[in-house]
Structure formats: structure tokens, C-alpha cells
Amino acid sequence: MMTDRLGLVVRDMIRSFANGKSHDRLFGKIKVVSATPGSVKYKLTVEKEHTTLNGTLHNGLIASMVDTFSAVALHTQINQFGTSVDLNVSYMKPAKIGETIDIDAKVLKVGKTLGFLSCHIVDEHGDVIALGEQTVILNRPKIPKSH
Fold first, then answer.
1. What contacts 122, CB < 8 A, 6 or more positions away?
2. How far apart, in whole angstroms, are the C-alpha atoms of residue 46 and residue 8?
3. Any alpha helices (H) in the chain, and if so which ranges?
4. Which of 40, 72, 127, 138 has the highest local Cβ count within 10 Å?
């Protein structure tokens, strides 16, 4: 279920990424399916602009989705982003032009300084395309120690 305010916040974030000049503009066709604190689900129909010369979803774009969409899930939970310190993606199966993929980004754990995030990407049959995990250092302000 999508919370109205949270869903709008996530949609606006994705729209701002898509309107930029970086590779994030490729996220313009992403649809937000649901957003709850710590979890966001998306859908994307793979188009030519998302693919390699072989016509399959580009692995670099998949890694970027893991990075960006899991960070958005973190933002829905703690209202801030983190800085990646580790990103791991396992590629299981290619996705081809015309296929619709589901992207499930979640916060696994938030500690004092680190956040642990995941992003699973599956095809319309539920077959795993990629599994990603990310560790981020949280961008929290430092509180001065009192003596």
C-alpha cells in the first residue's frame, strides 16, 4: 500500500532524477508501485535506451538502480540519504526489450553510522534478474561532545 504523502515524495524524487543531465535520466520511465517507510517497489518496461548492444538490460544501469532505489528506500525511513561504501550486485538472468521488471528496494537495518540496504529485481514471472545489496555511511550531523 502506498502512503499518499510518501508516494508523492518518492515520485517527485524519481522525477527530479529523470529531469537531470546524468545517467539518472534513464529512470524517467520508472513507475512507483508502492512506498512505505523503508520499502519502495517500482516497475519498469525495458526499452532500447536501457539496454546494451545485445538488447538486454545494461548491467551498469542495474547497479545504478540498486544504488539509487535502495537509497530512496532509506530516505523514506530516516529522511536522509547515505554515501555508498560498498555495493554488490549478482546478475542472474538478462532482461530483454519489452519485458517488464519489478524492483523491490528495502532497508535491512539502520545503525548509528551505517545503513544496510537491498534491492531485488525480478521479471514478470518472478525469476530473479539481479540481487543487490548496499552499505551506506549515514550523512548525519556530528554532535559535539560536551566535556
1. 101, 102, 104, 128, 129
2. 23
3. 4-18, 59-78
4. 40
Can you tell me which residue has the cell 527530479? 16
Cell of 132: 543487490
The one-digit pLDDT tens for each residue of the chain (147 residues) are: 455 777 777 877 777 766 766 666 677 788 999 999 999 999 999 999 999 999 999 999 999 999 999 999 999 999 998 999 999 999 999 999 999 999 999 999 999 999 999 999 999 999 999 999 999 999 766 656 665
Within 13 Å of residue 49, how many CA atoms lie on the same side as its CB? 10
Cell of 69: 532505489
- C-alpha–C-alpha distance, residues 32 and 2, integer Å: 9
Task: Round to whole Å and give the CA distance between 70 and 132.
Answer: 9
Residue 77 amino acid letter: Q
Cβ neighbour number for residue 79 with a 10 Å cutoff: 9
- pTM reported for the whole predicted model: 0.85
